[in-house]
Amino acid sequence: MAVFTRSYPMDVDDELADDLDRISALPDDLLHVILSILGDATMVTRTAVLSRRWRRVWTHAQKLSFVDKDPKIRAKPGQFGGFVDLALAQRGDANIQSLSISMPTSDSATPEQINDCLRYAMQHTIKTFKLFSPYHSSNETDDDHPLTILELPSNARTTSIELRLSSFRLRLPVSPSARYEALTELNLRSMCFDEEEAGARTLGDFVSTCCPRLRKLEIWGLEKLTQLVLRIEALEELDVNYSSDLRKLDVNAPNLRVLGIKLFIISLPLINENSNKHLVVGIVAPMLEEIDMHIWADRLDMHIHDRTSVRRLRNLGLRMRGQYSCNTDYGLWLLKNCPNIEHLDIYLRHMFSMNGLIDLMDKGAPRLHKVRSMVVKTSYLWPEHRFVTCTAVAPDVSWPKIIPLFEDPNTLASHPNITMDFLHEASIIGFTGTDQEMYLVSFLFGCSTSITCMTILPESDDNDDPNRSQLLKIPFTGHGCWHFQRDKYTWKRTQYEGAQGKNCAY
Amino acid sequence: MATGSGAAAAAADAEEKESGSRMITLTSNEGKAFVVTEASARQSATIRSMVDDGGCVDKGFPLPNVDSKTLARVIQYCDEHGNKEAHTVDERAALAKFDKDFIAELDADKAFLYDVTMAANYLHIQGLFALTTQCIADTIKGKTPEEIRTAFGIEYDLTAQDEEEIKEEDTHA
Q1: Ranges for the At1g61320/AtMIF1 LRR domain (chain A) (predicted)?
Q2: What is the C-alpha separation between B76 and A154, in angstroms, rounded?
Q3: Which of B34, B145, B158 faces A46 most closely, judged by CB atoms?
Q4: Is B173 part of a structural domain of the chain?
């Protein structure tokens, strides 16, 4: 506590001071901070007309965000691009920390203007550059309407670049001296490549040769990218998503920690005897800790060398049974071949209606001695099967049986021997109180003596939800207390073991 | 040996306990002394680093760039954020409410708002600096130039030549 009186009488001088232009007396640095908070380039540049003092203050603002908000009211095509060009030209040689340009229509800027922006940004943007370009409604990419080419300049000082260039073709710098020395993060979306063009540089070659400090690479929906060969010493995180032309992913990255792959490379229709889209994945990453993988390919050859460092498997798709299942063996293969997994997050994808218990032991899954936590998700693929998402955190999981939760409670009842001795926490989402769901709750309490916490998120937000009284009647819940909130029911075990808890609710 | 290290540990413990309730004197440029808790003073990264460097805690810290009125208001903020907990939802809501009232009062007196902003900048009180600069930015947001001039009392002093330049820029934008 401060030991002084805190009363602040307004005196007459203060009232007068209000009328003086004190803001203009603030130092430039401080005004730059304020303009950076504004961000929006239209507002920031508008301060140029306030007074003489303000004419050039904005040109040193460290963050500018150009957004074409009302493309329809702009009279001429490229007018927004012209505004961007002019604003950037007025900044002269001043550097900027963060620049983002977002153009929602193809009329916003001409290709020349976008190329100008790219050149300016690579030269002057120090930290973050983002460019979102128009998305053309017509996807004509035939010979008569080739995609417009944008060129990435040969050099950049920027540390983080995100480009979403829908319906443009990106040409990477071919100069042998091209360098993106400072670049640590690169995120490319939706653009098209033409790697067969004579003399063109491939994306893999560009990042491997020109970006020595690249730590994080994310690509999303790139077209005509057929192969990605990466040799990057610094790379720690790689995310390859939805690039359906990819046939070869070959990564050698001694510092890679996190690998994410989401690829759907399949022939349509789904059941095609002659399906032959073949994907080859080769990963050499001795420091790899996390794999987040969902691949669906007609044919998949996957080689991940030395998996002893892998601790986490996320979103691991296991397509359980059924004649439609494609080559998904990588799921089980990873389970078997990553001996040190601690966190497991699997997604059971059921293509077909099926009955009974899935016991992965039958499919040769190993005992995963080191797993400390596990999340199991199932999906609703067939409306008649209400799968319930069940999350379990259990230390020392020795590969418990995975139970698909069907409408038919007999599925569980017919397996009275299931126990979950190490189950500590369970949560159920979207609880509606059907008999099966109630049965599931009873089942979880019944098969585990170690449970300490249960969370249920009900669909109903009714304070008189009749399910509450049902929950109170479940055997074993007497070892703890239910706490009913409008949107969350929590059961916690009474802390002192031995002292029988009262069945209470509040 | 054992007793020696035990005594040292006890002394360290005592110091640890004391540091929570230690008082620190901050002196405004008008020579007025304000005594605050160390927790309150540590809201300022500038003072925090001086304290941690074993600086002149006993002698107090003179702040030649801050006047008494501004310092008093800054300390009001630091007391609230330094001495109160923000662990529970209720505690955080109480702090958010304090911030809201605090900035609303400053916003009504723009000249004082700038003084507090400058002081927060000088003393590196991150939360307070973010609060005041955001408030000034909010005043600019969504306004026409004329409205901004009125809000801040900025005098229109552009010359004919400036106006010509602006017209030129406008035709492109």
Answers
A1: 96-270
A2: 53
A3: B145
A4: no
